[in-house]
Design a protein that fits this description.
Helix content is 74%, strand content 1%. It is an all-alpha fold and 503 residues long. Helix 2 runs parallel beside helix 4 and helix 4 crosses helix 5. The radius of gyration is 22 Å and the shape is globular. This is C4-dicarboxylate ABC transporter permease. It holds the Pfam family TctA.
């Protein structure tokens, strides 16, 4: 039955009009995802009205192209100008931008694209073969499980704090404080808004990321009055391909593991791509033979980030199609698109509309392959950004940051938040405080707080609820292991060092 559905889907998807539609979706996603502030969720929402005049298959396929390409495209500006196009690209910027400063931008862009495509294809396999089974596991995630998972994500802070853990913790604490601004989701009471209504909606993660990474970097470079470093781009693109494929083969298990993390986290409603990328990045650093390179230009960190956040694209669609519960905000728009086209998510969708759904799943594969080719072209064009004189590039980047801050909120509030965090980020850079822990705390802090308080409400304040549920206990054990193992390893290294110095 499954094979029949897939063969039927191939006959439909390889028609010229469908291929053009998929290419259009990918091109739109690449453009929107690479623009600071224009998130993939916004891109899918903007394209949704254009699907009303299309049939069900064409409309959903178009949105799939925007979703997959937009998720990857955030890596382009993250690598080139330290401006994550999407929240899930934050970890990409940590190693992508240092690689650019080392003259390795072509390799970094190519690796990010390949890792994204691999993550997308692996998630597509699970989307086709294991949708109902993974959806059943996702249903078992309640507030205690969500707390344990997001708390696991917070443990990444200890490993992205650089040479000064104290400064990293101070940065994270400030991020957690900023994350509490706005309406309390449990009690409905405004917190730290100081009577200003625009703060009731919170500070906003994306404007904060734009400020902490892009605007702060612009201020920092202007103060230094340094010229933009223009890398020596290899004359032959085949050399770039050779290096990229060799690295991919060398780290094939890393790509597989990170993609699976993306699929697993994506199948859990409400987590988001940023959680997956933080966990995958942390796991890659923990297992790496060269953890000291992470944050300074590690190919492993780059590949882990991109394969995980594109692995989440297929994972997030699993509960969307099978249960009607979106895994991410972009998947929520997919849910709306299904209903607009008269399709009700759930088991009956697979029973009565099997040909349509599996054609969409097959289209997910083809969209990722198209992204491989169009993304390669977009990466070559993007390299030209590095050749722009700094007197032109800095004002343009700053202008795009302001436009992005406005676009995400539709008001000047987003611009103000971006500039506010730009000043904070600049001061942090001057004084050696890493911005990464603050971003992690801003993104995961609200999720940790909400799930913690919901769990305690369910248990009437009894903390044992976290230790009596198998999935929650599993993640808590992972938290303990990821925290204790590096400490034990460092203690052993210090003891060996003392022994060697005595001898």
């Amino acid at each position: 039955m499954l094979l029949d559905y897939l063969l039927h889907g191939m006959t439909q998807l390889f028609a010229l009009d469908m291929l053009l539609l998929m290419c259009t979706g990918v091109a739109i996603g690449l453009f929107i995802g690479a623009m600071p502030g224009l998130t993939v969720t916004l891109g899918v929402a903007l394209v949704l009205p254009f699907t009303f005049g299309l049939d069900s298959l064409s409309g959903i396929i178009l949105l799939t192209g925007v979703y997959c390409a937009g998720t990857y495209a955030g890596a382009i500006t993250a690598i080139l100008i330290n401006t994550p196009g999407t929240p899930s690209s934050v970890t990409t910027a940590w190693d992508g931008y240092p690689l650019t400063n080392q003259g390795k931008a072509p390799d970094a862009l190519r690796l990010a694209l390949y890792a994204s495509v691999i993550g997308g294809l692996i998630s597509g396999v699970f989307l086709i073969l294991l949708s109902p089974q993974l959806a059943k596991i996702a249903l078992k995630f309640g507030p205690p499980e969500m707390f344990a998972l997001t708390f696991l994500g917070l443990t990444v802070i200890a490993r992205v704090s650089g040479s000064s853990p104290i400064k990293g913790l101070i940065s994270a604490a400030a991020g957690l404080l900023f994350a509490t601004v706005g309406i309390d989701l449990i009690s409905g009471v405004p917190r730290f808004s100081f009577g200003m209504n625009f703060l009731n909606a919170g500070l906003g993660v994306i404007p904060a990321c734009i400020g902490l990474f892009a605007i702060a970097e612009v201020f920092h470079q202007i103060e230094k009055r340094n010229k933009i470093f223009i890398p020596e781009i290899p004359e032959s693109s085949s050399k770039i391909n050779e290096v990229s494929w060799r690295l991919l083969l060398k780290h094939k298990m890393l790509l597989m593991k990170s993609s699976l993390i993306g699929v697993g986290v994506g199948a859990i409603p409400g987590t988001g791509g940023s959680v997956a990328s933080f966990i995958a990045y942390d796991e890659a650093k923990r297992a790496s033979k060269n953890p000291e390179l992470f944050g300074k230009g590690s190919y492993e960190g780059l590949m882990a980030s991109e394969s995980s956040n594109n692995g989440i694209t297929g994972g997030s669609l699993i509960p969307t199609f099978t249960l009607g519960i979106p895994g991410t905000s972009s998947a929520a728009i997919f849910l709306g698109a299904l209903m607009i086209h008269g399709l009700t998510p759930g088991p009956d969708l697979f029973r009565f509309q099997g040909e349509l759904i599996y054609t969409v799943f097959l289209g997910f594969f083809i969209v990722n392959i198209i992204m491989l080719f169009l993304g390669s072209i977009a990466s070559k064009w993007a390299i030209s950004l590095l050749k722009i004189p700094n007197s032109i590039l800095y004002p343009v980047v700053l202008a795009f940051c302001i436009i992005g801050g406005y676009a995400i909120t539709g008001t000047l509030t987003g611009v103000g938040v971006s500039l506010f965090f730009g000043v904070i980020g600049y001061l942090m850079l001057k004084n050696g405080y890493p911005p990464a822990p603050m971003v992690i705390a801003l993104i995961l802090g609200p999720k940790v707080e909400e799930s913690l308080r919901q769990s305690l409400i369910l248990s009437s304040g009894d903390f044992s609820i976290f230790f009596t549920r198998p999935i929650s206990v599993f993640f808590i054990i992972l938290v303990a292991l990821t925290t204790l193992i590096p400490i034990i390893r460092n203690l052993k290294l210090s003891k060996n060092f003392k022994k060697n110095t005595k001898n």
